[in-house]
Amino acid sequence: MNLTIRPATPADEAVLVAFNTAIAWETEHKRLDPAVLAAGVRAVLADPARGFYTVAERNGEVVGQMMVTFEWSDWRNGWFWWVQSVYVREDARHGGVFRVLYRAIEQRAAADPNVIGLRLYFDLENVRAQSTYRALGMSDTTYGMMEVYPLPGRDTHVG
Which of 21, 63, 105, 133 could form a disulfide with 138 if both were Cys (CB 3.0 to 4.6 A apart)? Predict the structure, then answer.
């Protein structure tokens, strides 16, 4: 497979924006505002407290990405890392890119005694993704997810 896994840097902004644009379209048929998305990617790259991106490279080209954000659990006195913004370039799919990215994050989390678990959310109709996550050792929870977005009186372009 010959992949290199590394932290994303500001030089990766354009590919991260392109991959996030593709995720939104492929998974939800949403077109994201490019300026808002670019600002959001830059915010993560500039502030490690917001999260971090990890990328997979093959032959010097980024072929996959994964973002991690953080959730504090008062019940468990530790951090959950949320796996988000996962994307594998179409020509690199079914080659283990996601698995290698995920294992790298899993190892990094395991090396930090303050991290107590990994979480992700997924589209309930994406059975293939769920099967992949289970094969990596993730299990279903009893939690659902709801949201209010944008908050009343707020523009979706807050930034």
Answer: 133
Report H helices in the chain: 13-28, 34-46, 97-110, 127-135
pTM of the model: 0.92
Whether residue 92 contacts residue 104, with contact meaning beta carbons closer than 8 Å, is answered with no
Question: May I ask the CATH class of domain 4-135?
Answer: alpha beta
Instruction: State whether residue 11 is helix, strand or coil.
Output: helix
* pLDDT > 90: percent of the chain: 86
Q: How many helices (H) and strands (E) does the chain have?
A: 4, 5
Domains of the chain by residue range: 4-135
Gap between the Cα atoms of 113 and 120, Å rounded: 20
